[in-house]
Write a structure and sequence with these properties.
Blueprint: H1 8-16, E1 20-26, H2 30-42, E2 47-50, H3 59-62, H4 83-88, H5 98-111, E3 118-119, E4 124-130, E5 135-140, E6 145-153, E7 175-178, E8 193-197, H6 201-213, E9 216-221, E10 228-229, H7 237-245, H8 247-256, H9 275-288, H10 304-321, H11 325-332, E11 345-346, H12 349-352, E12 358-362, E13 368-371, E14 375-378, E15 381-384, E16 387-390, H13 399-402, E17 406-407, H14 414-417, E18 436-438, H15 451-472, E19 476-479, H16 481-496, H17 527-539, E20 545-550, E21 556-558
Parallel strand pairs: 1-2, 1-6, 2-3, 4-17, 6-18, 7-16, 8-9, 8-16, 9-12, 10-11
Antiparallel strand pairs: 4-5, 5-6, 13-14, 14-15, 19-20, 20-21
Helix pairs in contact: 2-15, 10-11, 15-17
Length: 561
Amino acid sequence: MTNGSTSAAEQTTRAGDAGRYDAVIIGAGFSGMYQLHLLRDRLGLKARVIERGDGVGGTWYWNRYPGARCDSESHSYSYYFSDELLKEWQWSERYPQQPEIVRYLNYVADKLDLKRDIQFETSATAARYDEKANLWRVETDTGETVSAKYLITAVGCLSSANVPDIPGRDSFKGQWYHTGQWPHEGVDFTGKRVGQIGTGSTGIQAVPVIAETAKTLTVFQRTANYSIPAQNHPLSDEFKTWAKDSRDEIRRTMHASTNGHPFLISERKVFDVSAEERKAIYEKAWEVGGLRFRAEFQDLLFDKAANDTAADFLKSKIREIVKDPQKAKVLSDIDHPFATKRPPIDTGYFETYNRDNVSVVNLRETPIVEITETGVKTSDGEYELDIIVFATGFDAMTGSLLKLGIVGRDGVTLNKAWEAGPRTYLGVQAVGFPNLFTITGPGSPSVLCNMPVAIEQHVEWVANCIEKMETDGIDRIEPTEEAVTGWVDHVNEVANATLLPQAGHSWYLGANVPGKPRVFMPYAGGMARFRGICDGVAAKGYEGFVLSRDSADSRTEAVNA
């Protein structure tokens, strides 16, 4: 066993002694760990976390592909609810790698003594609402059933791997891997002919590392992508001291910012400055690196002409870096506005194409026909490979939820309720599923933000809601249909006021998964605005929700309807 965890069998026995809890939480990443801490240690509730891995980490437990690294700056990619945690932990570099993030989460889990209430190596296979008992009954792959008044999903927005069903995939005689299901022992690319399919954020991180040892690396690109250099570096002692001493200021900035990052978006607009000054601003932002680039002008995501100036600058950088004109043409042929898809940051991505052992295939011109026993066949011929890497992303925001087998009132499945696209109120609850809370679910800012900030807000809101229910003797809470419809309309209205929906093949819309409804899923109104809306709903007695209790004659009575 790793990370000090106990075995599933030992934990099942312990849980089986009393398989009834106040709350069951699914997932032991940033969300599940903090939710457990608040419910158990602040509210005194009996809570259990179910986690399919053998250690904490959530998304970061599974995503350990070559080059896996955070794209939020490390001093902001932390829990900010505890000054003690902030004082004790020290990050080593500006953008931490996956192993360091997992070490951090283990540090927190040990510091708060969370692992004793986390059941590792256990998957939730079904979750059914028992209306008569007002309990969620959760079945696991260990053969156990646990029950709780509250069910909280903390399964992550990017944790359900999207493995493309390419004809012939399983006939391949070499090895293939998905970046989100990477072997814990790693993969040796030395001397191998490697093909990578996908050039989103994950693929852009993986390419430079794979290319270092592979005999050849062939990158199969469907959609050309922008990327900004991370300009990563070790943190100085001076910066570490500043981050610890300035934690209150950093927290205030993150809570006030649109995307939960430790910097604010500039008030200036693109055409408020001359072309020369604008180019100088972009050049400086390029040298600073990271996601701060998109914060230089406030109208980049609202005005196509303004966005074009950033897009043209970034495309010119690609053509400047990549020496082979044909490679540069393929890599800079980008068909969507800047930052309308998740904006990657990289360490030497475009520079890697200057290596003799790296090539790029334009799948828009020569699409993949099939995977053969020996490689990948496109309309232009076959590429013989020893290893295929699928950097094809995730069934984002809904995939992990819909795999849980959730069944609500009257036997309605969550899959059925969301067959035309996810419908939530505030990203936290759905009609017909009382006392089911989804952390950073569809309809919340989540993936448009620095995730720990979005997670802390949602987890705290849920804990405060449960505390009110327990204090006031409330048995159940769920949103009204009107509130959900209003919120879905608002999410779409806000998204349509931006350029975000113009990237029609974005996973924000579910477009990377065949057959998935095309619905813009995250809330694009900004984290600070969202926090204010959620606080207002709670202050008005949970407006838009029905809080109810069982009356003496077993009839349900609404408390605030």
